[in-house]
Amino acid sequence: MTHLSDYSFLQRATGLSYVLIWLIYRVYTTEKFDCLDFSKFKKGELKSIVTALLLVMIPFQLYYGNHSSLHVYIYVHLFCKHSLSPILNIDVISCKIKYEEGFVQFLGRIMTKPESLWTDADKALVSPTDYSLCIGFSLQIGTLLLLQCFWKYLAKLVARARFMSSKEFKFYIIMTVVNIILFPVLQYNFTRDIYDFTYKEIMPQLVYGCEMLVISILGGVSHFRFKKLLRNSKDQNDAQFITTKIRHFQDLNLILSASLFIFSFSFILISADGLTSLKTINRNKFLSDLLICNINISCIVTWVIVILIFHPNKYGITKDRGMSDDEMEQEIERGW
Length: 336
Prior knowledge:
Oligomer: single chain
Strand order of the largest sheet: 1-2
Structural class: mainly alpha
Distance between the termini: 53 Å
Number of helices: 13
Helix content: over 70%
Largest sheet: 2 strands, antiparallel
Shape: elongated
Order of helices and strands: HHHHHEEHHHHHHHH
Number of strands: 2
Strand content: under 5%
């Protein structure tokens, strides 16, 4: 019985629901939704853009999110020996399907009911949600890449120091745009009949996992940049203020990087295993569910930390310097 536990979908769906509620509450209590003012978007303020992405991405991931049931998909491929469309891997919809469709017995094994036996209504959900899933991947990668840009703003605002080159900053912006296109293209390409039917799920997930791993490494690089920033700020008049603020965000960045590493490493393992002939992990219920638990928990930690980074206590970055609200807004605009 090597299917993915039904509980894994329910666990992630419930966790993301709480994260979404807390995001809305946090944005309201820290700034009364001021960051969502249209004028802020016209100015291209990064905080407003990322907040909007979070408000779209988390419900999108909640409804269409796919992180996990690759081994169900491969299991069907291994034992049925005939072409089946992929198992739908979404949170809310997956909960509905897995609890309503149930299981079947095949060759003496109990397994999740394959799509060929689903109702027509459930089968109709496959194609649109495959592409919706890839859009969700794009939004997540884009949000985390823009976070790297945020560190440049933070360093300039708090320590009035350089954190990264303008070329690196522009590279993250360009890659955000590229990723919006990348995953739907991958989905379209590997849907073609020339590829094994499992590739349409495996390849986008594998690329997604690899990009998440790269972002976690970038977080490690930022950690050492923060340390350098702290060393260079010791002789400034407001060194204590700078140290307090930078260390706060340095700690958040470190937790985020560790969470992303666990998330991406687990994701890569379970996806890459699907390309092997033995498929050791996907055939083992304990190993696969263990990786999925790591993915689910680190996913929640990741987005909670991102929210804390972009929405700290109101004006927490500047109030220690005695800035007025207008002065603070001017600083923020210059920081972008």
